[in-house]
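Team,

Forwarding the record for the chain on the shared tracking sheet. I've put the sequence and predicted structure together so nobody has to dig through attachments.
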Amino acid sequence: MEPSDEELMARLAGGEEQTLALLMRRWEAPLSRYVRRRCYTCGPDTDDILQEAFLQVYRHVHAFDPALRFSSWIYRIVHNAMVSRIRRHARTSGHEPLDEEALMVPQGLSADAELSARQLDSQVREILDSLSEVLRETFVLRFLEEKSYEEIGDILHLNANTVATRIRRARTEFVEKARKRGLFLEGGE
């Protein structure tokens, strides 16, 4: 049986440095996907963001609270690394060019038959771009990364009521904008 993330963190804190490589292999793909979905302009810097995040895990291994879920902790670290990257980029370039890498479509989203997958990706991206930063962030964590309300609260440092409100608002706004474009959620929602 594979050790849990929390067990690996305890081993890392105890000096077993090779456990960091296990955590990196386990979390690289989902965190990379999260960065690309959450921060459209970060695509070329995804590897750098993840490298910085895993360095932070190593540097702050003793700050990890085993009472919390590792997933929430690592997503928060990646979130902070993205924010830092965006701020650095904005200071040096003065603007944020759009990364054209395709966004994966949320599970359960459908469109009229003639709409190609690429067009659907583009439409979903435009809808997500039109959401406010806080609603987009919440939407991505809940519906694309499939995080629980509790995990979202841990990642964003929000209480349960605020998370629930933001998820409801993000979903409502996304669905309304999707319907205006001829997109709809399966199941008649």
